[in-house]
# Entry
Amino acid sequence: MAYGAVLMIIGAFLIIVGWITLYRNIKREGFVTNGIYSYSRHPQYFGFILIIAGWFIGWPTILTAIFAPILIYKYVNVCKTEEKEMLNKFSGYQGYKESVPFFI
# Structure
C-alpha cells in the first residue's frame, strides 16, 4: 500500500502543478510550453495514470484489475487525440512535440 500511496501522491502533485501552470498562462495566446510543460506534453494525464497505477498497486482487487488498464488506455487515447487537434490548430506544435517527451 505504501508504494501505491507514493505513486498517488506523485500523480496528484503533477496534476496540481499542471493546473497551476495552465492557470498562470490563461491569458496567453497559443499553447503552454513553460513550467512542467517544458518536461512533459501531458503532465496532468500522466498524473492521473500514476494515480490509477497507485490505486491498482495499493488495492489490487478484481475491479482495479479490470478498470486500471481500461482507464490508462483511455487517458493515452485522449492524449493522442488532443495532439492531433493541436497539430491542426498550432503550426509550432510539431517542434514542441519533437523536443518535449509525451510523458515524463
